[in-house]
Amino acid sequence: MRKVILLLLLVVLASGCRDGFTAVGAGHVVVTTNIKEGSLSFIDVGKGRVTATWKVQKPVTGTFILPDGDTIGMYGKDMDGVELYSLQTGRAAGSWPTGKGVVNALVSGNRIFLANQTTNAVHVLGADGKEARKITVGQSPLTMTEDASHLYVLDFHDKMVTVIDKKTYAALRTWRIPASSAGAVVTSRGEMWVGGHGAGDVLNEEVHVYRTATGELAKTVQASQMPVGFAADEKCVYVLSHGTGILTKFTADGYQAVQSEPIGSNPFTVQKYGEQLYVASYDSDEVYVLDAGTMKVTGTIQVGKGPFQLTERRGTR
């Protein structure tokens, strides 16, 4: 009888381990999605170090934070849906049966936009996971960026941007972009900077700047190989080239490169949080923290294997 009780306790404990992770709490964190091992690392911004690691052991490629500030959503192209967890408790909070194909997510207000390469559409969901609209776009939607009124969806294979009204969900217009475009940011000047890996054996070393109101090409900016990571503020655009591991700071109004710094090993992603830049270094399993003004590294944080995507959760205390 004692052996049976012990066995039941072990089963319950094992089940609990599968359903929950270390509580993250309510503080300010940056989350890295580590795709080589299927894990999430939680960086406490104030402490400058990882305070929790979740071994998800699923093909997760990205995360997003719901409007409640506590629920984190995990997605991946080969996952059957979006998995939800509470950061406060580390416990499962449900799932959304989106089907396979989700490659990107963007939270805007109380809506979550999911780019799905199986349906070749953007699915608009409420915070409860209910679908409000399915918007058909081109083949293999990948990058999404926004301004106050519009969502911009870049198709990896169709060489096209689709402009979507965020209130009516109407697809307003499209314009052409280079093949295999990936990575973009909209500036306060009403311009969208677009990068990419390049097509075939030709590596891309250019960033194309478009006027969002018309789709007109405003400027072609020379960058380093494979500019795929972008961040921006009122004055500057930060371009991360993962082919050479170079982070370059450009003036937003004059398109001039003012500073370039080598950073990381095969970095994919840069995000600007406050006055700091966070760069995910894929091959060295690190996140670099830089001062956006000086472009100098202020910290290096060891995370899980293969950091690929970054998500910020502001403190909810």
TrEMBL record:
Domain of life: Bacteria
InterPro entries in UniProt: Haem_d1_sf, Host-pathogen_enzymatic-act, WD40/YVTN_repeat-like_dom_sf, YVTN_b-propeller_repeat
Signal peptide region: 1-19
PROSITE patterns membership: PROKAR_LIPOPROTEIN
Alphabetical keyword list: Signal
Protein name, as recorded: YncE family protein
Source organism per UniProt: Ectobacillus ponti
